[in-house]
Amino acid sequence: LKRKGKAAEKLAHPVKEAAVLGAGIMGGGIAYQSASKGTPILMKDIREEALQLGLKEAAKLLTQKVERGRATPEEMAKALSGIRPTLSYGDFGHTDVVIEAVVENPKVKQAVLAEAEGQVKEGTILASNTSTISISLLAQALKRPEHFCGMHFFNPVHRMPLVEVIRGEKSSPEAIATVVALARKMDKTPIVVNDCPGFLVNRILFPYLGGFTQLVRNGVDFQRVDKLMERFGWPMGPAYLLDVVGIDTAVHARDVMAAGFPDRMQESGPSALDALYQAKRLGQKNGQGFYAYS
Ligand code: NAD
């Protein structure tokens, strides 16, 4: 896109209103970022409590902004009113871009994307925030795969600048240009990447996390590894990072990576990550993972 410059930018469809499917860690963050940078957004979930949590998190972030003098109470109220929580597809006919951010499971994502495609106008661009799953695979569930690509944010959405825009086999230049322009409008730095398990960042990150679980299997204390990686200069160690990501999401993403790169992601049996998942210790999202949170 950079090389083609202005010509590519011209292909972008205007985005007056967006929607996000899933109001979890990522969906809530995407809704906050979109609304606070001026694009109103519908936030749909299948659970009322998820919608309430997503809104509460957005309100918390906006309050912090006001306290730090980086927004006025009026701006905060305007941004909050830009997030419209919903349990139904009622208003989806007006949306220009729909970002899917539900559980990291290809079958669930395909079903949700196909359902959403049936609810939007013909030119609406669909995007998936999947961490690892092939965009071309997800596109197989769609009637208009050319209107679909990846839009991969990082966690926490309001702080991480990068967004990977993933070009599937059938993604059109218009879909890519629209999502790139939306990412920029959301004050993010988009990079366009080709489709493969984990794309760019997780293709690097997951072998590192695999190295960590291997060390734990060999008896090394996870807290020592975290401290060491912090001393190395990283903002957090791997155990804490996995708690932030969500143990369930990490397990699903790891499985996609292991299937895609069996030579690099081979594990000799269940790991500490699997043990936490079995024990339903899902990380910060439910208060217990490698660490306990109050
Ligand atoms: P999460 O578990 O926090 O939230 C998922 C939400 O989706 C839940 O609120 C759930 O109720 C909702 N949901 C499930 N089925 C739905 C449906 N049919 N329609 C609408 N909502 C539905 O998960 P998350 O961490 O936000 O991850 C969501 C996606 O983002 C995954 O694909 C994940 O891989 C990706 N991602 C996660 C991270 C991270 O660090 N957690 C980072 C980047 C990308």
UniProtKB/TrEMBL annotation:
<feature type="domain" description="3-hydroxyacyl-CoA dehydrogenase NAD binding">
    <location>
        <begin position="18"/>
        <end position="196"/>
    </location>
</feature>
<feature type="domain" description="3-hydroxyacyl-CoA dehydrogenase C-terminal">
    <location>
        <begin position="198"/>
        <end position="293"/>
    </location>
</feature>
<comment type="similarity">
    <text>In the N-terminal section; belongs to the enoyl-CoA hydratase/isomerase family.</text>
</comment>
<protein>
    <recommendedName>
        <fullName>enoyl-CoA hydratase</fullName>
    </recommendedName>
</protein>
<comment type="similarity">
    <text>In the central section; belongs to the 3-hydroxyacyl-CoA dehydrogenase family.</text>
</comment>
